[in-house]
User: Fold these one by one.
Assistant:
Number 1:
Amino acid sequence: MFKKILIANRGEIALRIIRTCREMGIKTVAVYSTADRDSLHVRFADEAVCIGPPVSKQSYLSIPSIISAAEVTGADAIHPGYGFLSENAEFSQICADYGIKFIGATADQINSMGDKATAKATMKLAGVPVIPGSEGLLESIEQGKKLSAEMGYPVIIKATAGGGGRGMRIIRSESDFEKAWNDARTEAGAAFGNDGLYLEKFVEEPRHIEIQIVGDQFGKVCHLSERDCSIQRRHQKLVEETPSPIISPELREEMGQAAIKGAQAIGYEGAGTVEFLVDKHGKFYFMEMNTRIQVEHPITEEVTDFDLIKEQIKVAAGVEISGRNYTPKLYAMECRINAEDPANGFRPSPGKITVLHMPGGHGVRVDSHVYTGYTIPPNYDSMIAKLIVSGQSREEVITRMKRALQEFVIEGIKTTIPFHIKLMDDPGFKSGHFTTAFLETFDFSKL
Ligand code: MV4
């Protein structure tokens, strides 16, 4: 087992990783930018190394600074958390070259899923259902128009280097094709330095369902069921839940097996997530694979009773998994509490937290790095807490979530709490029958 893990991240996930390391008897090294001097991950780690100024490129994204910190402190592994360097193939390779275990995917695995058109082709070959569309990249407008006419509109073009909805355009008729193509190409080129596009049939109002998997170094992969992440605004997830209200035990097993097949096709090692779209008829299609731990992993922990960070560390150290799959024993939901003003377009609201009270009680978990007097720096992600609630039914979870949200006091900044309270009372949300388009028609005023 590892003796000392460096955590190449900040905020709640850095704390989350430190907690598990402590339980496993593994020493921890925090790294921090000068903006995070007063952060809890710095205080709770066994050692801490300042790696640069607030701007991420010169601190949390600086490979030389982080490798130096690992060398100086004698860390034998690095946990990248999510975001930052977690899906950076070059970083994963450099760690390997320095003999430091990267707790995440190998460079090859990251590369094979990082290019979306290649990832899709790989999954299709493995027998995972994919959305009908172009074989690989589109070569010309003419080819795109021809294929779209054959499939029928609407279609969607996506950046192969994409993610988060950038470089993506829905096309509803041939007359819109050329402009959409040009816009997507320009946007993708500017955002990713890669303007490759591929085309798919557009699935109207789908659900976003993702399967949690864990693979070991012996080719075994298991799944830990799904998370429903359909409540999103502009490709930012706000609420996640498990089990999904629309997934039957049969569909869960089918999607779980598809995710396992896909992961095995690339010899996947570690914790990963296979994202699917599910259409109105309950048909599912591979969308992308995330080769990292995700923000919303705690809801899976609550319903399966696994510590996913512990599983990541164990498989990275060469421990074999049982290979059993896990289905939810409970219901769980996560609300992302962001320092944003939901009544004003979710505008960021950094600043000092003057008063803080976190909720508690049965079935309530808060993963957060903030405290009374903490100042949220403007340089990073605006998520300041994850409120995770579990219970014996979806109804119980929603009731408990509303209670916990009402107990949550954060003064000095605006947060997404009022939005979540309103959502917990929304008949459409409560019914469980909603799609990824749900928030497009939500009334964010009067919060
Ligand atoms: C789609 C789609 C409909 N049809 N692909 C959004 C982000 C990127 N990962 C893929 N996305 C979508 N791809 C086809 N063929 C609809 C979306 C989409 C979406 C997906 C999941 C969750 C929220 C979404 C919001 C808008 C569009």
Note: The radius of gyration is 22 Å.
Number 2:
Amino acid sequence: MTPIKECLINKSTKINPVWLMRQAGRYLPEFKEIRKVNPDFIKLCLDHTLAEEITLQPIKRFGFDAAIIFSDILMIPHGMGQTVEFKKNFGPSLGALELNKLASVSDKDLTEKLSPVYQLLSNLKNSNDLKNKDLIGFVGAPWTLLVYMVNKISPKNGLSQEFFKDEVIINEILGLLDKFIKIHIENQIKAGATIIQIFDSWAGLIQNDFDKFLYNPTLSLVNHVKKLGVPVICFPRGITDYIKFTKIVKPSMINIDYNVDPENLIKSLDVPVQGGLDPKILLSDKENLRKQINRYLNIFKDHPYVFNLGHGILPETEVEMVYELVETVRNYK
Ligand code: CP3
């Protein structure tokens, strides 16, 4: 059994597997080289040969316990026919939201459009570099995808107040997302994903209707993944009540963000935990990094725990610090 599954299924507290959210990409020199000559990000995600190389880059360097496929949560809106572009120093920019067009997309259309993602997974499935490691497939949660599809840009750059005005449209998009995300999950599992992670990066923006925007749509996906026999990790970044979330949604493992107080959380939590360390710590010095890593490992000493960050690794991170992180986790006793 892989180290992460030992932790997640057997609830072992003896080992601390390690991988990092957003490990494949932006901070790695060898990724930047590829990116420089591939200006179209979506096209790069759909080039399964290059995507395979990028997925394996962090594994070859650091020997993480899992590979996460090089892809993006916005491949779903792309697959549904909404234009998605990535602009330098700005981030994603989505095109007009034409509901009629989205509603006419079939399961087969989406599967065909995203087929290089599934090809990527089947190519990686038997890779020598991934022996005894997990291969993580992922999706964005309906709420976070809804935010991008309606707002068209990252809420970091401003959230449109028009957002909640039209409930009929919101409900229709949520319905379509539930359907298409499930297809994407199923295709990834069939192609070789051994774990699915659900990224709800903007869950912290939800102010009311938690059932409608957070609990119900995530539970629906979690049950779908479980039915397919694969563990599912949830990352509802920025929510205030992780305990309530795990009680309702029951993920196989919960990824906590860096605003969560781990000491307080652990008292009433009964699912395996992943993550937590503030990615900014990787921009400080090695001594501080070791200290902060040991703090998390000490707190979760008697709890199944996969070492990871409390959000994606930052582009400014130096690879030296990542080596130090892995070594510190591996040498922890
Ligand atoms: O984790 C990995 O290494 C695998 C690949 C992966 C990417 N995006 C590649 C990527 C994963 C898991 C994601 C998830 C993702 N994408 C999320 C959820 C996680 C999070 O960080 O909150 C979100 C919100 C997105 C949407 C997205 N994609 C944004 C906002 C941006 C621009 C800013 C940024 O993060 O770089 C992207 C682009 C993106 N996705 C890059 C990579 C490697 C950078 C592309 C570049 O080189 O310009």
Note: The beta strands are 66-68, 84-87, 91-94, 134-140, 195-199, 232-235, 253-255, 273-274, 305-306.
Number 3:
Amino acid sequence: MARKRFIAGNWKLNLSLAEGTALVQGLAKACAADPRSAAAEFAVFPTALAVKTIADAAKGSAIGVGAQNLHWEEKGAFTGEISASFIKDTGATYVLIGHSERRQYFGETDQTVNKRLKAALGVGLVPILCVGETLPERDAGRLQDVLRTQLTGATAGLTAQQLATLVIAYEPVWAIGTGRTATTAQAQEAHAFIRSVVRQAYGALADGIRIQYGGSVKADNAKELLGQPDVDGALVGGASLKLADFAAICAAAYA
Ligand code: PEP
């Protein structure tokens, strides 16, 4: 089944409003200049306070915008949190859920990931569910165990229709921000396994689910990673912060 490649840039806690605006406008221009770019999908994920500004700047272009997290409650006494419908209101269409930095530093669990996913899907946001193992887990031969647990926990109770919207990002924790990319064989093996877990629960739907690879993707390794049969895109951190680098990764998805 043909799956449209999807390149996403996670800006984390980086880029001012002006820097983000310039970057998204530059990217939009680069895509508009090459009709082949219509074959792929692109999005950036600014800090929460910049989402609306960047969504406004990207309006009418081929670049989508998303938030890096959300809270599952709609409203109430939850100081510091943002809800799915608030994100939707800004013009954003995507949201990252369960990024390893949220799991590592902010106590995210598979159960809270599940609640966030349901909240995102409930308002029609497209969630990118992040999963991946740490190095000790990989070294202990627990890769499949960890991925299966994260996937089943995160997607518990989702209908087939909800699952069909989901994008999954395989992000080995040891490859994030380290400059150490998974080999193409490691990426393909994990992606094929993730698809098999989805297939066990949701059948043929698994063939339409896009699975991005994330972890030190750069302009010089993107093409090779994207060439793997089960790698349908990339979630890019550091290399999404510079227009030339990110535009080159985006181009690897269609050129
Ligand atoms: C990420 O934060 O999702 C990521 C993959 O970061 P980097 O590309 O910098 O490794």
Note: Strands lie at 6-10, 41-45, 63-67, 94-97, 126-131, 167-170, 210-214, 233-236.
